[in-house]
Amino acid sequence: MSIKHKAKWFRALIFSLLGVFACGGMYAQTVTGTVTSDRDGTPLAGATVLVQGTTTGAFTDDQGKYTVAASGDATLIFSYVGYERQTVAVGGRSEIDVTMLASESTLEEVVVTGYGTQKAKEVTSSITSVKVEDFNKGNVNDPTQLLQGKVAGLAIARPGGDPNAGFNIRLRGISSLGQGSSPLIIIDGVPGASLNSVDPNDIQSIDILKDGSAAAIYGTRASGGVIIITTKKGVPGVSKVDYSGYVALEQIDRTVDILTADEYRNFPGSSDLGSSTDWFDQITRDAVSHVHNVALSGGSGQTQYRVSFNLRNGQGVALNTGFSQLNGRLNLTQRAFNDRLKLNVNLAATSRDSDLGFNDAFRYATIYNPTAPVYAAANDPLVETYDGYFQQILFDYYNPFAILDQNVNQRNDKRLNVNLRADWEIVDGLTIGGFYALQRENDLTAQYFDKQSFWRGADRNGLANRGSNDRYTQVFDATVQYENDFGGLNLKVLGGYSYQNFVNEGFFAEGGNFIADNFTYNNLEASLDFKRGLGTVSSYKNSSELVAFFGRINLSYDDTYYLTASVRQEGSSKFGDNNKWGTFPAVSGGVILSNLFDAGPFDLIKLRAGYGETGNIPNESYLSKLLLGPGSNFFFNGNYVPSGQTRKCLTIINNLRSLRKNTHGKRTSTRRGNHYDLLSSIGLRRISS
Length: 689
What we know:
The structure is a single chain. Residues 1-27 and 645-689 have low confidence and may be disordered. This protein starts with a helix and ends with a strand. 11% of the residues lie in helices and 43% in strands. It is mainly β.
C-alpha cells in the first residue's frame, strides 16, 4: 500500500471514530416502549423502530417491547407489515408506547382465485379461504389434516391408523363415476402438485374453489373442486429464526370385539391350545412420533426470503410401521426497477422412508385362535420350520404376529419441485408474467418374504420384489393482466396460455428361490427364479400433454356491484382425435346489499349467483389408440403361447362404444372404429380408435 493510500485510509478511520463518538454523545438517551395492534391490543413481534434520518433502529421482541438509542429531539418511525406507518416525536421522553393501526387492505381479506387474487368481499363464487391462524393444531402430518372440519362440504378421512395411508378428499360428494373424484391440488401455482412435497408448517393459506363458476378456470381437472395452497414467505425488515416441535403418543382406542381365550375355551367345540393370547395386543404398540421444524426468514430492501427444514418421524400403532421424512423449502422474492419487476423462486425437496407393514395381519388377528401361543413350544416338530413361530397347517390361516415380524415391506419416496415466476409491470396497470415449474417424483418399493414364512415365502423358498415409479411434470404459463379505474368502475382483465407435459415410467421385478435370507430384496440376482426363467419382470412408459387458453374479466362498480366472467379452452392428448378440446365458460355476479340499506347488526350482507362448467380427464393415456400387448400364457402344440387379455379388450371396446362426456361436460357420441379383432391365439389385442 502506498503512503498516499495509507494517509487516506488513516483520515477515513479518524473521521469514522469521530462520527462514532459524536453519535454516542447525540444518542445518549435510551427510549423504550411497547408496540401493540389496534385490533385486540396484542403485542406485535418484529415491528421496526427507526430513528428518522439515521440507520439506527431496533425490532420489537415477542412481547412487542423495544429499546433504541435516540436524542431527545429525534423522531421515531414505527412500521409493521399490514399496518400504517406511524411517526412519533421523542420530545425528551424515555418511554413511548405505540398502537399500530391496521391498514384498510389488511382488514379486507385476500382470497386466491386461480391465476390471481381478490378481496373477499369482491368474490362472487363459492370460495373458502383458511389462513394459518385457523388451521387445526396438534399431531398433523399431512396438509389435508389442517382443513378437517374447517370447510363446509369438504370431507377428509383416512380409515384406520396407518401413518402411510393417504387421505380420501371429497368436495361436495362424488363428481364422477368413472374417473378420479379428488380435487385438483395446486401448490404455489403448480397444478397437480404432490401434497407430500409440502410440509404443513410451511403453509400460509389454503383456498378451496368449491363451485363451477370458481373452478371452471382450471377446465378438465376441476370437477372435483380445486384446492390452492400458498406457502409462507419472508417479510422484509423482519429477520427471524423460528423453531417448533412436538412429541405425540398414539394408542389403540378400540379393536374388534372378539372372544378372549377364556371365552373361547367355554365355546362348544373349541380347540384349546393351552395359551392365552390377545392377538391385537401382540401386533400393536404405543406409537411415539416427534416433529421438528426450523425456519429462517426475513429480507431487506427489495429482497425477501424464507428457508425451512422439517424432520418428521412417525411410528404406526402396528408393529414395523411408520415413516421418517425430511423436507426442505426455499422461497425467494426479488424486486427490481422500482418494483416493476418481481421475481419469485420456489424450491422444495422431500425424502421419505416408510415401513408399510401388512394390513392382512389385522384380518388374521380377528380369526386366529386366542388359545394359540405366539411361538412354538421347544418340543414342537415345526419349531425349526417356521423360524420358531407357532403355525397350524390350515388353509388361509396364519399367525398374525409372524406376518409382521418375519417379512419386510418398505418404500422410499423422493419429491423435487422447482418453480420460477417473473411479473413485469410494463406500464401502470399492465403486467405480463411467465411461470415455469418442474416436478419430479420417484417411488421405490421393496418387499421380502422370508424363506420360512408360512404366510408367503416358504412356498417360494424366499420371495423378493422391487418396483420403481417415476413421474415427471413440466408446466409453463404465460399471462397478461390489466387493471384500471374508470370513475366508480374498476376493471381487471386476465388472459393466458398454459402448457403441461406429463411423463410416467417404471418397472417391476419379482423372483424367489434364494439361498439365504440375508440379502432380503437387495440382491435380486441371487434369486434362482430368474436363471430358470420363472422370475417376473415388467415395465411401462406413457406420456400426455395438456394445452389451454384462458381469460377472465372482473368488473366492480361503486364497490357494491361485482361481475366475473371467464372461459377456458383446453385440449388433452388423452382424448380421441375428434374429441380433444373442450370449452369451459363461467359467469358469476354479486351485490353487497348492506351498502344499499341499513343492515343493522350485520357488517356485510351479499347476494351472489354463479354458473360454470367443469370437466374430468381420464387417468390413462392412449385410450383412443391402437393397443397391442401380450397376455398370459397357455400350453399349445408343445410350446407356451401368449394369450390375449380378452376381458380387458372387451372392457376397452365397451367404453369406446358407450356414450361418454367430452371435456366440457356435454354428452356426445364417441367415434368408433369400423372393426376390431381379438387375436387371442397369437396373444395380441387390436382396437381401431
